[in-house]
Design a protein that fits this description.
It contains 3 helices and 6 strands; from the N terminus they run E-E-H-E-E-E-H-E-H. With 137 residues, the chain is of the alpha+beta class. It has a single domain, classed as 3-Layer(aba) Sandwich (Trna Endonuclease, Chain: A, domain 1), CATH 3.40.1350. The strands form 2 sheets. It has a 4-stranded mixed sheet. The two termini are 30 Å apart.
Length: 137
């Protein structure tokens, strides 16, 4: 009898999840998505996107041109009511705020803010994980 191959464990021990055809990197990410759906139903936010990609640019001091240096993939992007209008919000769910992945995120977040004029909202994954109903675990 052939042995069943085990899927490789994630570096941060997160388990990928799927909900209504959307894939999430962790239970915390899924929890945040469910929270955002509730806010959307209440009319407080709209146009939720997952895994949105943003190019990151740096100015070349000598040639006065911008060069694409990396990209950043946001967990969530949506519009939130702000007075009479709407403002774009970019979110990233983080369970651990240490190590090389956190350091890389901080660098990309600074470049993102310089490029796009607003900061990335960091959501504590330890809190959003608790909002996932037991039937989805």
């Amino acid at each position: 009898m052939a042995k069943k191959k085990k899927s490789p464990k994630s570096k941060y021990h997160n388990v990928k999840r799927e909900y209504k055809g959307l894939k999430f990197d962790s239970l915390a990410e899924l929890g945040r998505y469910l929270q955002l759906l509730t806010l959307e139903k209440a009319g407080l936010i709209r146009l939720i996107r997952t895994q949105a990609k943003f190019d990151l640019w740096a100015d070349d001091y000598f040639s006065n041109n911008a060069t694409k240096v990396a990209f950043y993939r946001a967990d969530f992007v949506y519009e939130m009511k702000d007075g009479d209008g709407w403002v774009e919000v970019v979110e990233d769910v983080k369970g651990q705020k240490s190590g090389p992945a956190w350091a890389m995120f901080r660098i990309k977040a600074k470049i993102f803010a310089a490029n796009y004029g607003h900061e990335i909202v960091v959501i504590d994954g330890n809190q959003t994980r608790k909002s996932v109903p037991k039937n989805l675990l």
